Amino acid sequence: MTDLTFNESDLEAIQLEKSDILNIWESTHIKALKRKIKKHYRSAQNENCCYCRKNTVGEFNMVLDIEHILPKSLFSGFMFEIKNLSISCKRCNMEIKKDDISFLIQSQSFLDDPFDAKHYKFIHPNSDTYYDHIDVEVSIKNENKMIKYTVLQGSPKGSFTYTYFKLHALEVDSFDRSQGSSGMPQISTSIDDDIANEIRKTLKVEIV
Fold first, then answer.
1. Is residue 203 part of a domain?
2. How far is CA 106 from the centre of its chain?
3. Enclosing domain of residue 139
4. Residue 144, domain member (yes or no)
5. Which of 8, 32, 111, 123 is the 20 to 30 Å CA partner of 156?
6. How confident is the model at residue 175 (pLDDT cuts 50, 70, 90)?
7. Confidence band (pLDDT; 50, 70, 90) for 184?
8. Long-range contacts made by residues 138-147, C-beta under 8 angstroms, separation at least 24?
9. 109: in domain
10. What does the pLDDT look like over 23-35, one tens digit per residue?
């Protein structure tokens, strides 16, 4: 991963708002900096959510969140710490993780190096290698889709990440369901043709 660095104008924008630390993240003075952060991590993560690896290619910046792994509401001092930043989808950030810190393994050494991978139950976006813990298989062909997460070698971090971010809810395999499908489901021949056609239009059945 290439390093993200803050230039002089970035640091000036941050310093300008530090007198109001609670609202600094929403300040208009750091809009350009936030765009820079998103651009960096979208590229560094190969356009994937840092937690569920959802493909983010083509997504607008507004539907992706700059993720503070240690929540900024609780760890304001790490708000602009590069090791504490990443990019996540709104499902993982706003619906699941929010300001929770139950994923932390707190110890006396935590503050010595708060971004050491050993302090985290889940796969840390910057301190761990995701695919050392979870294998993600995605296959799409026409209307069929398969998404599968496999925890590797009984990895505790992989298992915790799978459960914590409810990755099972994202798994799908429509290839199996489509076997033997020959197209649009047949409408009973006992129904008048005009009515049958109207039913087809209404149903708008998607074959999977």
1. no
2. 24
3. 8-170
4. yes
5. 111
6. confident
7. very low
8. 138/55, 139/175, 141/175, 143/174, 143/178, 143/206, 143/207, 143/208, 144/174, 144/175, 144/178, 144/208, 145/172, 145/173, 145/174, 145/175, 145/208, 146/172, 146/173, 146/174, 146/175, 147/171, 147/172, 147/173
9. yes
10. 788 888 888 999 9
pLDDT tens digits, one per residue of 56-108:
998 888 889 999 999 999 999 999 999 999 999 999 999 999 999 999 998 88
Count CB atoms within 10 A of the CB of residue 178.
15
Structural domain count of the chain = 1
Q: Which of 15, 5, 8, 13 is nearest to 37 (CA)?
A: 5
pLDDT digits (tens, 9 = 90+) for 103-154: 999 888 998 999 999 999 999 999 999 999 999 999 999 999 999 999 999 9
> DSSP letter at 89?
E
| Domain presence at residue 197 | no
Query: In DSSP terms, which residues pair with 67 in a beta bridge?
Result: 86
- Return left, alpha or beta for 39; rule: phi > 0 is left, psi -120 to 50 is alpha, else beta: alpha
Contacts of 103 (CB under 8 A, 6+ apart): 97, 120, 121, 122, 160, 164
